[in-house]
Specification:
Blueprint lengths: L10 E6 L14 H15 L4 E6 L2 H11 L4 H24 L5 E5 L8 E2 L2 H9 L3 E5 L9 H11 L4 E6 L5 E2 L11 E2 L1 E3 H6 L7 H9 L4 E5 L5 H6 L6 E4 L1
Parallel strand pairs: 1-2, 1-6, 2-5, 3-4, 3-5, 6-10, 9-11
Antiparallel strand pairs: 7-8, 10-11
Helix pairs in contact: 1-3, 2-3, 5-7
């Protein structure tokens, strides 16, 4: 952890895919991986940075994919929202084991396990030094957790969205797993990424970031030092900005 360098960002929103919590499993959560991520997030938080997290649910929903096949799209999306709540609770538990005060706010009402999402309350939690984890996406079907991340970042006046990818260093001209000629892109604009159809975020999320001048750093979650490096102002992964 780099404690000598002052943080380059005052408030960050970390977008975690469900797959990032999966480790080497086919689906579900890997407790060791969740613990590692929570330690990385806690280290950045201890540097005085406000941290909010939006979690996806792909690691759990992948196991439900067969059951969801042929299902109404809205119903399937609500199932995905519930999967993100499970991930949020797992991450909250791991963060609290690091002695970090954490709150889960859900966009759908599950009052027994999470607070409802209230913007002013979320901001107050951050001001009091708590990490806030946002679950259930936007609370609406047909919108991804990428859109939820862009929306929450804009609402909370975050300085940057940190988009953690699973085993990918940043943005490439094509999928590096499928195209050996794919080239790494160190910096790109929102508009150019949209025009070229680069699959970093969905188009709705990109448009939100572009309209609100929200930079995005796309980086590899597999390297446990990356979040701290980004917060320190080092160039890691791909920077997407207006």
């Amino acid at each position: 952890m780099n404690t000598a360098t002052p943080p380059a960002y005052r408030r960050v929103l970390l977008k975690l895919s469900g797959e990032a919590l999966m480790g080497d499993r086919d689906y579900g959560t890997d407790p060791g991986r969740v613990q590692t991520i929570s330690q990385e997030v806690a280290a950045v938080h201890r540097r005085g940075v406000d941290v909010a997290v939006v979690v996806g649910g792909g690691n759990i929903y992948r196991g439900l994919a067969a059951a969801a096949r042929g299902m109404d799209r809205a119903t399937g999306d609500y199932m995905g929202m519930l999967a993100t709540v499970l991930n949020a609770l797992a991450l909250q538990d791991a963060l609290e084991k690091e002695d970090i005060a954490t709150r889960v706010q859900s966009a759908i009402t599950i009052s027994e396990v999470a607070e409802p999402y209230i913007r002013r309350r979320a901001i107050r939690h951050l001001e009091k030094g708590r990490i806030v984890i946002f679950a259930a996406g936007t609370g609406n079907p047909f919108f991804t957790t990428d859109t939820a991340a862009a929306l929450r970042a804009a609402e909370l006046h975050a300085d940057v969205i940190l988009m953690g990818k699973n085993g990918v260093e940043g943005v490439y001209t094509a999928d590096p797993a499928l195209d050996a000629t794919a080239r790494f892109i160190p910096e790109i604009t929102h508009k150019e990424a949209l025009t070229r159809g680069l699959q970093v975020m969905d188009s709705t999320a990109f448009a939100l970031c572009m309209d609100n001048n929200l930079p995005i750093v796309v980086f590899n979650m597999a390297d446990g030092r990356n979040i701290d490096k980004i917060v320190s102002g080092e160039r890691v992964g791909t920077l997407v900005r207006t």
